[in-house]
Amino acid sequence: MQGIQLPVRLELVTAANTSPLAIDVTESAEVRIQRLISENPVVIFTRPSCFMCHVMKNLLLTIGVHPTVIELDDDEISAVPSATNPALFLGGDHVGGLESIVGLHLAGHLVPKLIAAGALSLPIWVSPS
Fold this sequence. Notes:
The protein is an alpha+beta fold and 129 residues long. The protein has helices spanning 29-39, 51-63, 74-77, 98-107, 110-116; strands at residues 9-12, 21-24, 42-46, 68-71, 87-90, 93-96. The strands form 2 sheets. The protein has a 4-stranded mixed beta sheet. Strands 1-2 form a two-stranded antiparallel sheet. A hairpin with a 2-residue loop joins strand 5 (87-90) and strand 6. The radius of gyration is 17 Å and the shape is globular. Residues 5-15 have low confidence and may be disordered.
């Protein structure tokens, strides 16, 4: 079957995500990135070995959120609808880079945004009887 290309679709399902991370090799980078943004409540797009992504991911993990982190090659990074690297998307909306997420956290606005995106549940407080 030389010369015949069959479509390939790879899926990775993690415990933290309810939706699979699917890679369809026939998708363009732009289409794949838009799909990942719409399918995952918290997505970080970054380049390999980005220390700012590591800090951003650790901040979110400390809060209790497990972000989807996508490392892109130099030819794919231009397909991200953002000028920041790393680029954070919450509930499909671009939030910004590391400076933006730290600013939101210090101002007390990050947790409400994570709850609105469905990435974090409201704590249930039970009063002692």
